[in-house]
Design goal:
Elements: H1 11-23, H2 30-43, E1 47-50, H3 53-63, E2 71-75, H4 80-88, E3 92-96, H5 107-111, E4 118-121, H6 133-143, E5 146-150, E6 158-159, E7 162-163, E8 170-174, E9 187-191, H7 194-203, H8 211-215, H9 237-248, H10 250-268, E10 275-276, E11 289-292, H11 299-308, H12 333-338, E12 342-345, H13 353-367
Parallel strand pairs: 2-3, 2-4, 4-5, 5-8
Antiparallel strand pairs: 1-9, 6-7, 8-9, 10-11, 11-12
The protein binds pyridoxal-5'-phosphate.
Pyridoxal-5'-phosphate binds near residues 78, 81, 150 and 152.
Length: about 375
């Protein structure tokens, strides 16, 4: 079976994991501290690790004091985690239409959805392709908004030689099982805003103030203060040990994903009317490889055919404004036109050149 996505684990992660198991300290301790320092070295800014990407987004919003009565703009084409993180604070996710080429949030349309309740915007670096930083900055300044980037797809992606996470207001990554690097489960918040970092450090430990420093010495606080709602969102040393191994290998992960995208681009360029979201190589690291099928193609039939050939595919994503919990009327003409034509091809580190050739050939045969 050619899998749509998977983790790739080596002896490096196993050795790290063994070290933690030997220590018989499985909570948040020195491994998390080192992982945060290593991420911080890469991105050049303070990092706070948590137990999922969703938790990172939730805490980032709470640390910006976003809550009931507030609104946060978010593209409708994203994983439901973006929406859940917003609604978890009590704020309302306001779905926006997307741009047809990148599937990024359309800031022109988003402008018409801004109200006096709008406090933040959550651009999503869809597929790993980077939302142009200047567009985001301009939009946020124009309406006086904070920015929480959903960078779950974009660990390793660069814009003009700078890593996603090294610029921007508040940036959140996911390290779940299939992301560009994994901890098993995990995520982090990256920002230069020291007030936000201090706040999320407490919030991840049930609001217990200044517990992080104690935990990093494999201790904990017995006499403490709590001043706000917190959550049990801290990362364990088990997850950090896996993440540190993955981070060591990450340059090869990034290169391989970019190479696979190159191969797909070469193989698929001859299909008329097939559009690639990652249409040309840039500094981004593809997390998924979505294509937009020609208008008349029966996607279900195609997916079944590929499944018969042992090729898994995915759909990233159905529009969130059509879900019962997030139902919203409005102009979603691009998202509603494109979502039935989106198909994600296999993309992961262990995909061989032969696998890519087989997927490409099978798609070509079906579409011609
Ligand atoms: C994976 C993902 C998240 C959430 O990350 P988890 O670690 O799974 O909680 C958020 N947004 C997008 C776009 C994602 O793909």
């Amino acid at each position: 079976m050619i899998r749509l996505s998977k983790s790739s684990l080596s002896s490096i992660e196993r050795v790290n994991l063994d070290r933690v198991l030997e220590s018989e300290f499985l909570g948040m301790g020195a491994e998390v501290k080192f992982f945060e320092e290593e991420l911080s070295d890469l991105l050049g800014r303070p990092v706070c690790c948590v137990n999922s990407g969703t938790a990172a987004l939730h805490l980032a919003l709470q640390a910006l004091s976003i809550g009931p009565g507030d609104e946060v703009l978010v593209p409708t084409i994203t994983y439901v985690a973006s929406f859940q993180a917003i609604s978890a604070t009590g704020a309302k996710p306001v779905a926006c239409d997307i741009q047809p080429e990148t599937l990024h949030i359309d800031y022109n349309k988003a402008a018409s959805l801004v109200t006096s309740a709008t406090k933040a915007v959550m651009p999503v670096h869809y597929a790993g392709r980077v939302v142009a930083p200047f567009d985001t900055q301009e939009f946020a300044q124009r309406f006086n908004l904070r920015v929480v980037e959903d960078a779950a797809h974009a660990f390793g992606s660069k814009y003009n030689d700078s890593f996603v996470g090294s610029f921007g207001d508040v940036v959140c990554f996911s390290f779940d099982g299939i992301k560009n690097i994994t901890c098993g489960e995990g995520g982090c918040i990256v920002t230069n805003d020291s007030a936000v970092i201090e706040r999320v450090k407490n919030q991840r430990l049930l609001g217990v103030e200044k517990d992080t420093e104690r935990r990093f010495e494999n201790q904990r606080s017995w006499n403490f203060e709590v001043s706000e709602q917190g959550w049990r969102y801290h990362m364990s040393d088990i997850n950090a040990a896996i993440g540190r191994g993955q981070l060591k290998r990450s340059q090869s992960f990034f290169k391989r994903r970019q190479k696979i995208a190159d191969l797909y681009r070469n193989n698929l360029s001859s299909i008329p009317d097939l559009k690639l979201v990652m249409e040309s190589p840039d500094g981004s690291v593809p997390h998924i490889f979505p294509v937009i099928l020609p208008q008349d193609v029966d996607r279900n039939h195609l997916r079944a055919k590929l499944a018969d050939l042992e090729i898994q595919t995915g759909i990233h994503y159905q529009p969130n404004h059509l879900l019962k919990f997030y139902r919203q009327q409005g102009d979603f003409s691009i998202a509603e036109k494109l979502y039935s034509r989106i198909l994600s091809l296999p993309m992961h580190f262990d995909l061989s050149d032969r696998d890519v050739a087989k997927v490409s050939r099978s798609l070509l045969e079906f579409l011609q």
